[in-house]
Amino acid sequence: MSRFWRPGSEKPSASLVDDEEGGVLLLPTNTNSSSSSGFGYASLERQRQRLPVYKYRKAILYLVERHATTIVVGETGSGKSTQIPQYLKEAGWAEGGRLIGCTQPRRLAVQTVASRVAEEVGVKLGEEVGYTIRFEDQTNPGMTMIKFLTDGVLIREMMEDPLLTKYSVIMIDEAHERSISTDILLGLLKKIQRRRPELRLIISSATIEARSMSTFFSIRRKNSLPESADDLPNPEPAILSVEGRGYTVETHYVEEPVSDYLLAAVSTVLIIHEKEPPGDILVFLTGQDDIDAALKLLNDEIQHLRKHYFDLVILPLYSGLPRGDQDLIFAPTPKGKRKVVISTNIAETSLTLEGVVYVVDSGFSKQKCYNPISDIESLVVAPISKASARQRAGRAGRVRPGKCFRLYTEEYYLNEMQADGIPEMQRSNLVSCIIQLKALGIDNILGFDWPASPSPEAMIRALEILFSLGILDEDAKLTVPIGFQVAEMPLDPMISKMILSANDFGCSDEILTIAAFLSVQSVWVSMRGVKKEFDEAKLRFAAAEGDHVTFLNIYKGFHQSGKSSQWCYKNFLNHQALKKVIEIRAQLVRVMKRFGIPLKSCDRDMQAVRKAIIAGSFANSCHLEEYGQNGMYKTIRTSQEVYIHPSSVLFRVNPKWVVYQSLVSTDKHYMRNVIAIEPSWLTEAAPHFYQYRTPNPAPH
DNA sequence: GTTAGGGTT
């Protein structure tokens, strides 16, 4: 019989290697027992001591002991994410069953940092050192001392345990990125600190924006505590700065502003290749369009130049790229060749490319914008901040000293570029954010102490939408049970509402599948080159009712194929995305079970399915303008001009009345995930909304 | 008449 290394059992020894049954090979990794004078352990320890943060070990522990909040400013490579949690554990912060928590904005970062720390501590991942991300809990209650998790997961944990009583210290990493989740967390943690003054916070940030962070966390104690409370930490935040370990990066600017950053980027790449020693080039552009265009320009140029330019390996990089193409980016550069990666800002924070020595920075990126009056989020090309520019430049100094070529003038950088970007909270629709705060008992949204306050207009718009969905009542409190149930579901509230309404139409089974599809980016593989085949593949699943029903067809096909990746490839479907659909659906089934809502299928009654969809998306109804521009719709609520997105199965079909799931705004407002409806269903689903919103919405 | 910066529950 095989012996597995179970939690709580003895650590495996070398003799536990067992491959009798064809494949269980458990080699001990680095153990921390003193008897193991393993070379691996010693060198790991030496590596830890070489990190810049090591010098500050004592200082950090002292500040955390004495201050409620410690702000650690450190560039990448300082080792703060992996080392500080270990220092805290060594100093006893995890004693007595308490937890040291460390959040990251991204799932991948959580996993990699956690496994690195487990290795350094010399324990099996998931025991003393563990992590939790959505769909994956690698912790062992009672055993785990250091826990890594995404900000989003920590917010969810607060719904069970609002004061986060299990934690003695919480470190918020990458706080400078100011994602919505990070900002919500910062605001909530400040509140928790008032109730739990013994809780320690560490805010880890890459920029000096730390100062505004410090102002945010300083607690003025007007009715100040008596002096005797000196076992409590100082409420005034401490700031500590740790240098990074990156190599120096020489910055070059253009002398005159460039009129076309695409052309400038292409010629800069060619100049670097001609004049600079070996080393890969990373180019930052804004989006897939830009990147494809630059790729083509670069390849055209090379055709006309000398042979020596054939040494360039030019690769695109953006999140929508199929998995196989993304792997090419990480393959080592062939000998005698130079890799050129043309990327969106995915390479700024989410992915790290080894071997980059030269960075070309266009100075632009696509950024989300939100207009609370029209309730439309859009993506616009906008100038980046100084903080982003420095982050981009830093990508050139990971292996050896590098160079960064900025396609803007030094004068512009010094005098016109914003120091920091606008926090995402101030550029987004707040519906999800507000429902999370409500679920945590924060009733006064307008009076909430936000790290960066969103506009009152944006907050009011979100409250209005939640009210019209029946999630909030007239007093802006969560309704029972709908409001509380929606808050518990890990979805866009409109989608949650759709699920809860499905029960009335007897189609919860179908609606759960649709909800899962709506929660992933896109299930199609973007292939611009083979459009004809792609369109044909899509037609195999297309439903006359629209995209939501098409998803049901894809789901059925995927199941019948045995969840085959081959099948996905043949049908231009993203296998990863479909596996995620399955996971999300399973999670939703569990939530429904908890609510006591039965799963029911309506078989082929797609009218029921469409009516359930409308119960969530009735506010997104549109009517085709028959005498207007071809394919132009107008929203019923605001008479906004909108068009069906080319990825929709209803593109060019143009039914008279439609409801959309979301708007994507580029040069036009495009409706994504569209379904054809009868106008009478709208008044049926939301009489309150259509009566007071528009005097005469339906023609009949 | 034709399209997606990056994340997360």
UniProtKB/TrEMBL annotation:
Residues 265-441 form the Helicase C-terminal domain. The keyword Cytoplasm does not apply. This is RNA helicase. It is an enzyme of class 3 (hydrolase). Keywords: ATP-binding, Helicase, Hydrolase, Nucleotide-binding. Residues 61-226 form the Helicase ATP-binding domain. It comes from the Eukaryota. It catalyses: ATP + H2O = ADP + phosphate + H(+). PANTHER family: ATP-DEPENDENT RNA HELICASE, ATP-DEPENDENT RNA HELICASE DHX35-RELATED. The lineage of its organism: Eukaryota, Viridiplantae, Streptophyta, Embryophyta, Tracheophyta. Residues 1-20 are annotated as: Disordered. Signal peptide: none annotated. Its EC number is 3.6.4.13. It comes from Brachypodium distachyon. GO terms for molecular function: ATP binding; ATP hydrolysis activity; helicase activity; RNA binding; RNA helicase activity. InterPro entries: AAA_22, DEAD-box_helicase_OB_fold, DNA/RNA_helicase_DEAH_CS, HA2_WH, Helicase-assoc_dom, Helicase_ATP-bd, Helicase_C-like, P-loop_NTPase. One of its GO terms (cellular component) is catalytic step 2 spliceosome. PROSITE patterns: DEAH_ATP_HELICASE, HELICASE_ATP_BIND_1, HELICASE_CTER.
